[in-house]
UniProtKB/TrEMBL annotation:
It comes from Arsenicicoccus piscis. This is Cobalt transport protein CbiM. The chain crosses the membrane at residues 12-33, 53-74, 106-127, 147-173. It comes from the Bacteria. Gene3D superfamilies: 1.10.1760.20.
Amino acid sequence: MREVRERPETKLLLGAAGAFTFVLSAIKLPSVTGSSSHPTGTGLGAVLFRPPVMAFLGTVVLLFQALLLAHGGLTTLGANAFSMAVVGPWAGYAAYRIATRAGAPLLVGVFAAMCLADLATYVTTALQLALAFPDPVSGFLGAATKFLGIFALTQVPLALAEGFLGVLVMRALTQVAAPELQRLGLIKPDVAQEKIDA
């Protein structure tokens, strides 16, 4: 992977981003609708390493979950990878860039990225299900309304919780991995030096 070749010092952080996504997205939480929800964890990796890297990591995570935990399965791997490893990271990264370019602090950008990556994943999943199972009467639109109500709306509290978790993790990373974050361009050199000297 080019990221590792160009910046070998970020290997541990890259592995941690993959592990974070694996553990977080493996958590199965019951939903009020009788379904279940999962955090995704892809927003943080997208902020750290950009969406293309997170697309690869997210797909690997989903493959391992399908093989080891029977989450999702191999027949739905493509659809799951598209929603969680492609749409989620890109949406999260866009939220991060918009927030930081508007002058928001790094942690606000991370919060926005984590929330939107999670919500975008489940909105995409709802639309995929509506395409696969259109309503007999109202077609795609009726099914989309139903699935968005089941998946997207019930995901809002989980997305907010994931945003707060992302802030906590990023705060910890600024303490233990300041040089790596500085090389990735997420914190300024003077901030990194303060963390090293502390």
